[in-house]
Write a structure and sequence with these properties.
Mean pLDDT: 90
CATH topology of one domain: Rossmann fold
CATH class of one domain: Alpha Beta
Strand content: 5-15%
Shape: globular
Length: 538
């Protein structure tokens, strides 16, 4: 994902340290009906600055909302929105459909193209597809940036094997939190929770003049949808959650869960690389490939490749393979090229090239550091991460330091809202069994809290939020639901309702073609990768 950690921004564990100031006192999230009413102005639509949106004929604009909904006449911020109008006659119109790609911190403007690029056979033609940048993100105003290039090249080694390394990362974490306060201001950082983002979504609904919205959320977007459904159940019509966040694990615990899952999935990836040793020549067993991976990492600790790709960049590049199957070939080719030819440039290109923007990282922290109160015992941070690292060394400390500024975050923390989907008429949930960013037990928890929902399981798959990638079983259910509202029958028990094939593992060029693996349409996969790249904050 070109700087994959910043793309998904879904994994991370708080780190060890020395002395940490207590976080602010927690506040309960107030239900929407207790807040003063706010009615935004209608969107003034115009041309889009994004060339892809402009070429497609999308419309763009802003929705002005309160920074603090408890003070609706106070300071205002602007949410950037985009729209592709429905193509059917008005008599067949099914209303606006908002899309959130996840993060938190992912830009969503490009997803006005969701209906055209992801939904085949006109399945999305009866909706207005609405993309939006949540508060602080991308084209919204203001957009938060703290220290650009914070995730740049050749950073200190993630694993704090010396006290000096730990102190370096703690200082980097504090410096980043301080910079966010200096650049964003206390008022903005105090109002960046998912509850407030859900209120923003309802303001977008009002600005569109719609009595209800439809919603498609990926990854963190599923949690945003869960919160919206809890606060505004009568304003939701149809919704799809792909890659379900567990609402009982917000956010510290969920990040430890992810570390363990990422470690499992990278081993699955190494097994795949070994399966195609005739192509990559990196080892005939997964264990041999894994050993080579860590051997090369150790060398990079001593000498970064090309002076820029160090052990941290190496880890972050491979993290993509633990998230998705889409980039497996790219990572394996880069791995092989580096080991056998010394080609570090391909590694650099996979990671990304400067200048790097940190808007995605900044918003990720602004939300997860304040959605829930983080532990304040520094000994607990250190102990939790070392215990997890022993079990799952692949990315535990990388995720720990990615979240490090939460130790010093100046924004007020809240308590997670008690997600309750019992008043929602229906929902379609999707999760692969071995999704590492949003582990499968979270999907079962969401299914339990949304008693009229149906869960599709991509059995055995490792791809995070991979719906509409060409898997007929899953995609046909999504399309039928969006067209007619029909869902498969819900089954009894704590289980998935429908079992489908996962997004298939790729077959590299030159290898024997597996018909099952070749079944995914390359167009769908290419479009998904392209749109995901377009949504990455730069």
């Amino acid at each position: 994902m070109n700087r994959f950690v910043a793309v998904v921004a879904a994994a991370g564990v708080v780190l060890s340290g020395v002395i940490v100031a207590p976080l602010a006192n927690a506040e309960s999230a107030k239900p929407a009906q207790h807040a003063p009413e706010f009615t935004p102005k209608a969107v003034q639509w115009g041309e889009c600055a994004n060339p892809r949106l402009a070429k497609a004929g999308a419309q763009c604009g802003f929705v002005e909302v309160p920074l603090d909904y408890a003070k609706p006449t106070g300071d205002k911020i602007k949410l950037a929105v985009s729209r592709m109008r429905h193509k059917t006659p008005d008599s067949q119109y099914q209303g606006p459909a908002l899309v959130n790609p996840g993060g938190p911190g992912g830009s969503g403007l490009i997803y006005a193209l969701f209906g055209d690029f992801f939904l085949p056979n006109g399945a999305g033609d009866s909706y207005d597809w609405v993309g939006f940048d949540p508060r602080g993100v991308g084209s919204s105003q203001p957009a938060l940036s703290c220290i650009p290039d914070v995730d740049g090249y050749n950073r200190p080694f993630y694993v704090p094997i010396t006290p000096g390394l730990e102190q370096t990362w703690l200082q980097r974490s504090k410096d980043y939190a301080d910079a966010c306060l200096a650049n964003g201001g206390q008022k903005l950082l105090d109002h960046m929770t998912t509850v407030e983002a859900a209120k923003d979504m309802d303001s977008i609904r009002k600005a569109l003049g719609a009595p209800q919205i439809n919603y498609y959320g990926f990854s963190y977007g599923t949690y945003l949808g869960q919160v919206y459904a809890t606060m505004f159940p009568d304003k939701l019509r149809r919704m799809v959650f792909d890659g379900n966040v567990d609402p009982t694990r917000i956010w510290y615990d969920s990040n430890i869960d992810q570390d363990l899952a990422f470690d499992r999935n990278i081993k699955i990836y190494f097994d795949w690389v070994a399966k195609y040793d005739s192509v990559y020549h990196l080892g005939t067993t997964g264990k041999a490939v894994e050993k080579l991976y860590y051997s090369e990492l150790a060398k990079l600790v001593r000498q970064p490749a090309g002076g820029v790709v160090g052990p941290d960049e190496w880890t972050d590049i491979f993290l993509q393979a633990a998230y998705y199957v889409y980039g497996w070939e790219d990572v394996a080719n880069a791995f092989s090229g580096y080991v056998h030819k010394g080609d570090w440039q391909t590694l650099r290109d996979l990671y990304g090239t400067p200048p790097f923007a940190d808007n995605g990282h900044a918003i990720y922290l602004a939300v997860i550091c304040t959605d829930a109160k983080w532990p304040t015992s520094i000994n607990r941070y250190r102990l939790d991460n070392w215990i997890t690292h022993v079990r799952a060394p692949f990315t535990t400390w990388g995720n720990a330091w990615f979240n490090g500024p939460c130790l010093y975050w100046p924004g007020k923390s809240s308590r997670p809202i008690n997600v309750d989907g019992s008043k929602v008429k229906g929902a379609l949930l999707i999760n692969e069994t071995n999704d590492s960013a949003t582990p499968y037990p979270g999907a079962l928890e969401v299914r339990k809290r949304f008693p009229k929902s149906v869960l599709i399981e991509g059995v055995g798959g490792t791809t995070h939020s991979g719906s509409l990638s060409g898997v007929e079983c899953t995609d046909s259910i999504i399309i039928e639901y969006l067209k007619t509202g029909a869902l498969p029958q819900r089954k009894s028990g704590n289980r998935s309702d429908v079992q489908c094939d996962p997004v298939p593992q790729p077959v590299p060029a030159g290898a024997t073609v597996d018909k099952r693996a070749a079944s995914t349409t390359s167009t769908a996969t290419d479009l998904r990768k392209e749109l995901a790249a377009a949504a990455i904050p730069r």
